[in-house]
Design a protein that fits this description.
This protein is mainly alpha-helical. The protein contains nine helices and no strands.
């Protein structure tokens, strides 16, 4: 607790933690647009309690986005940085991001920047965007990515996947994985 931060009663702390857990579960399964009424019901509180504790949807997103999205996304980036070969690094990263997008709908909401009022969400996007630039530059320097493939192309591929998964018909996992292979074959040098 910091100076000036009010002490929460035990029941208020319990309510806040129940709301966080319910939000993580709901957002993880269906994305960040899950109605707050549903989160409140799952937490066993009123919707007003969410507004009192978190100020609404953006505050709730801010309270859970690190655990919900940033941890996995940053772990992918960190692991990618350990791969010495730039082509293998790009392949791992793209495959891992696409798998995360398929499995975790909230990631697509983040990558599409659907809640730009969330400073934490936008900070996650900046980190991912910075890594995309780093990845493409390293791939070009090592001549492992096609020279015409740009950082903007990588951003668009991730964005297009997010749009398709969020608003399109969800493909079977095997088809989605097969298309990842086609994508990787198209951007790498041979």
């Amino acid at each position: 607790m910091t100076v000036g931060e009010p002490r929460l009663r035990a029941d208020a702390k319990r309510n806040a933690e129940q709301i966080r857990r319910a939000a993580i579960e709901a957002f993880r399964g269906r994305g960040l647009a899950v109605p707050l009424d549903e989160v409140a019901k799952a937490a066993g509180v009123s919707k007003a309690t969410i507004f009192n504790r978190f100020g609404g949807r953006i505050g709730l997103i801010e309270a859970v986005i690190e655990q919900l999205v940033a941890g996995e996304l940053f772990a992918i980036i960190d692991h990618a940085r350990t791969i010495a070969d730039a082509g293998e690094r790009a392949a791992y990263y793209i495959d891992a991001i696409r798998e995360l997008q398929y499995r975790q709908p909230a990631v697509n909401d983040v990558l599409l920047q659907l809640y730009p009022e969330s400073q934490q969400l936008m900070a996650i996007c900046r980190v991912a965007g910075g890594f995309n630039a780093e990845l493409v530059e390293a791939g070009h320097e090592a001549r492992r990515l096609r020279p015409e493939f740009t950082e903007g192309d990588l951003q668009a591929l991730v964005h297009d996947s997010a749009l398709a998964l969020k608003y399109g018909s969800r493909p079977a996992a095997a088809d989605y994985e097969r298309r990842t292979t086609f994508l990787l074959d198209g951007i790498r040098t041979h």
